[in-house]
Design a protein that fits this description.
The protein has about 140 residues and is an all-alpha fold. The chain has one domain. About 55% of the residues lie in helices and about 5% in strands. A two-stranded antiparallel ribbon has the order 1-2. α1 runs antiparallel to α2. About 5% of the residues have low confidence. It is found in: Bacterial flagellum basal body. One of its GO terms (biological process) is bacterial-type flagellum-dependent swarming motility. Keywords: Bacterial flagellum, Cell projection, Cilium, Flagellum. Its main location: other.
Length: about 140
Amino acid sequence: MIDRISGDLGFYQEAVGLRQKRMEVLAANIANADTPNYKARDFDFTSALRDAMAGGSMHLPDTHLTLTSTRHIPAKAVAPDPATLLYRQPLQPSMDGNTVDMDVERVAFADNTAKYQTDLQIISARIKGIMAALQQ
């Protein structure tokens, strides 16, 4: 039963995680709007979610690190990032080389925020439904 609950919520967990990452990328673009030669970044959310949910294609084999000294800190392998950052093509390039278009960034940030909140509401409703089923 736990596997079914995990499978049901797994999609939304990945979606919320990617939305949060996209929010960080868009916020970095907005914060660097006046930085000379800063190149605006973004990623394709749909393909990143598809890659994250594909499972096998994005996972590397387990890495085992050998400690050669007792003073070394044990480490775990880092999972690959399904969201490949791309450079945004500027609609109107600026003289200082900055490619951030504040109108595009604000719209993308607001859209991503609304979808993030929607995903959280869906997760909350699913959990409430599961709790109601368990209580009966």
